[in-house]
Design a protein that fits this description.
- It contains 13 helices and 14 strands.
- The chain has a 9-stranded mixed β-sheet with strand order 9-10-8-7-6-5-4-1-11, with helices on both faces. The protein has a 3-stranded antiparallel β-sheet with strand order 12-13-14. A two-stranded parallel ribbon has the order 2-3.
- α1 crosses α11, α2 runs parallel beside α3 and α6 runs parallel beside α9.
- The model has no long low-confidence stretch (mean pLDDT 93).
Length: 322
């Protein structure tokens, strides 16, 4: 039986980050339940279409999945389990951004069956977090992180970002150390927390974001390409010293903790995206859903009304991508 990965897109946030170009909005709480109902209908429809697949990974991304209320998340997870052949050892991940977490939320996610969380701390300095438009402080991240551990999660990813506007090498090193080891600096601080997985991303300025407009206006201080590369190579070397193996450009994991979902993307295996703007690669075709929120809700799960830009991937295309 073929295997596949499932991605679920949640397009809601408490506040939109200034660098984010993903399809997501803040202040749309009134549309959340309507969206969840439409997404539930799509999940059930796609479950019938791809009933011959075993699902080995489910990933809730966004946006901020934990911006939804607990019953909404439970509704979606129930629909997935009832509609797809989710294997007993499947990796079930949700992004859970600091500022939207509590022990109650973490415990509810665990009860739903999630066995992996991905938390976006991004930086260890509150001044940088504010500059990015993040809703949390580093103190709130630590409180949320410990709530996640208390709820029983034993597989946690922490997202970090480098080459941020005005960020110095010393600030990036502090972020990494605080994540790994002590309060002395950032990179090692993440290790002190002992996450099983670390994702370290370089900032990319995307069109349509506030950062892009500031950049065009000459108001955004970016680090040089040389500094960007220095930060990256220092990160690779430092995380290796702490036992994190690099298995993809931006992803590092302890032994046995590589993300199955990341590997499926990286190895060009099949994945089915559901939700607003979600992308898929199934049966040799790449396609995505509409980015229009009202259209998505109105379609009520009718994929014929949602699918856009279908592209047939030939053997030559597949080899080139590989």
């Amino acid at each position: 039986m073929k295997i596949a990965s499932v991605y679920i897109h949640i397009p809601f946030c408490r506040q939109k980050c200034l660098y984010c170009d993903f399809p997501s909005w803040a202040g749309r709480e009134g549309q959340m339940q309507m969206y969840v109902d439409a997404l539930t209908a799509e999940i059930r429809a796609q479950g019938k279409r791809y009933e011959n697949r075993e699902v080995v990974s489910v990933f809730f991304g966004g946006g901020t999945p934990t911006a939804l209320e607990i019953p909404m998340l439970a509704q979606l997870m129930q629909a997935i389990r009832e509609s797809f052949r989710v294997t007993a050892d499947a990796e079930l991940t949700t992004e859970a951004n600091p500022g939207t977490l509590s022990y109650e939320m973490a415990a509810a996610l665990k009860k739903m069956g999630f066995n992996r969380l991905s938390m976006g701390v991004q930086a260890w300095q509150n001044s940088i977090l504010h500059r990015l438009g993040r809703i949390h402080t580093i103190e709130e991240f630590l409180e949320n992180y410990h709530a996640v551990r208390q709820a029983g999660f034993e597989n946690v990813n922490v997202d970090l970002m480098f080459a941020l506007p005005g960020q110095s090498m010393a600030q990036w090193q502090e972020t990494v150390r605080q994540t790994l080891d002590s309060w002395k600096n950032t990179l090692k601080r993440t290790a002190m927390l002992k996450p099983e997985h670390i994702s370290a991303y370089s900032l990319i300025i995307e069109e349509g974001t506030p950062f892009y407009e500031s950049y065009r206006a000459g108001k955004l201080e970016l680090v040089s390409e040389e500094m960007d590369r220095e930060m990256y190579h220092w990160t690779v070397d430092t995380l290796a010293e702490w036992g994190y193996g690099q298995y993809e450009i931006s992803n590092f994991a302890k032994v046995g903790r590589q993300s199955r979902h990341n590997r499926i993307y990286w190895q060009a295996e099949e994945y089915l995206g559901m939700g607003l703007g979600a992308h898929s690669y199934m049966d040799g075709k790449r396609f995505h859903n509409s980015y229009d929120l009202q259209k998505y809700i109105s379609a009520k799960g009718d994929t014929s009304l949602l699918r856009e830009d279908t592209e047939l991937i030939t053997e030559t295309d597949a080899l080139a991508e590989f």
